[in-house]
Structure prediction request, 174 residues.
Amino acid sequence: MFKALVMLARALCLVSVLWAFVLYMNNWRSALAIYQNASGYRPAEFVVADLSYQPAWGSGKTRYPDTWYARGRVAGQDERFNLAGYLAHDPRSIDDLRSQIAIGSVFAVLYNPDVLDSGIAGQTIRVLPYRPGFLEHSRSRFEFWSALTFLPLAVGVLLLLCAEFARRLVAKPR
Prediction:
């Protein structure tokens, strides 16, 4: 009975660790890239030149959600800007998106043209929404995603070590 419980604990630890690691890795990578380049972001204005809407596609496990963003200019460069947080509701079509954001709209942003990777997991990281206290926020966001991504891994390893220690104690000849 004890052996079955140890095996179940190992399996549950492995599944939860892998699930958390895979689920949060892209958020952690994005937070890391922003944090590493935080000192290079400067306030700027993003002017919307066009809007993009791509409906969900695929089915079952490979279903991808709707995506939308603005294309425009910032500091004389063509860029993309994630509109999450600027819309009254998630758009259901390009017309719905256009009813919420007008071409020519101007957004206060933070811009770092030196960030080579313009997107991680569908998120642009070269152009970010303007946020006072950005340096502190980028650090705390990195710390949050680091904990959420790697803490389950550490806890899982600790639990597996405890299970192995308990197995050896029980199996020890007397």
